[in-house]
Amino acid sequence: MNNVYEISSQSKVVEGIDSLAAIEALLSKDTQYQVVAYLIPRIAFGTYHNGFHLQQESLNFDDIDSIRIFFSEAELYLYRSHDPLTGEASATLRGRYRSDGAGASEYCKDASQILIGSYIAGSNDQYRTIREDRGFELNVPASWIKQDLSKSRLLVFTRNYLEEWDNGQLSYHDHRFVSIQQHSEEE
């Protein structure tokens, strides 16, 4: 996982997104996505498959500060900018859609980070509340947890894209979420 390698990848700027319908229009029908939404009051984890499924609440467009909608091949990343003079949040989202497998050749490096939550503190049919002893907790889809969290933590897998400078040095210029899944410590 620590190796730098080359892949074909392309990134497209996305601007003027003004509704959930406009977000959905950018996604492939019948593709299963994972979702991390940074909302004004909280962070919500969930899925998208011909509709958003984030915990047991409906997603309100105006609450989105930023959102990552991703699967192994691509990610739609959108964020709400703010006016530098007034601090007012924009009514629209902007960002980029990055997909691998076509486009220019780029260097990249994959990485993973442990997601907070070493045990299940609560659950229902669709979600599990995972918690650390320090008190921090997250609600994640039950389908993401297939094993005991004490032996197989949830990890966020990312792909980090590098560009070569004129002096030959590689520098990070973009990254995307690839998946959130369990991975045992032995692997």
Architecture overview:
This protein folds into 2 domains: 10-104, no CATH class; 109-184, no CATH class. By secondary structure, it is mainly beta. The protein has one helix spanning 20-24; strands spanning 4-17, 33-39, 43-48, 52-54, 64-71, 74-82, 89-100, 104-114, 119-123, 127-131, 137-141, 152-164, 170-184. 3% of the residues lie in helices and 60% in strands. The protein has 1 helix and 13 strands, in the order βαββββββββββββ. Strands 4-3-2-5-6-7-1-8-12-13 form a 10-stranded antiparallel sheet. A 3-stranded antiparallel sheet has the order 9-10-11, with no helix packed on it. The model has no long low-confidence stretch (mean pLDDT 92). The radius of gyration is 18 Å and the shape is globular. It starts with a strand and ends with a strand.
Strand order of the largest sheet: 4-3-2-5-6-7-1-8-12-13
Q: Could you give the distance between the termini? A: 12 Å
Taken in chain order, the helices and strands follow as EHEEEEEEEEEEEE
The domain count comes to 2
Shape: globular
Mean pLDDT: 92
* Percentage of residues in DSSP E strands: over 45%
Helix content: under 10%
Which structural class matches the secondary elements? mainly beta
Biggest beta sheet summary: 10 strands, antiparallel
Radius of gyration: 18 Å
What's this model, at a glance?
With 187 residues, this protein is mainly β. It has one helix spanning 20-24; strands at residues 4-17, 33-39, 43-48, 52-54, 64-71, 74-82, 89-100, 104-114, 119-123, 127-131, 137-141, 152-164, 170-184.
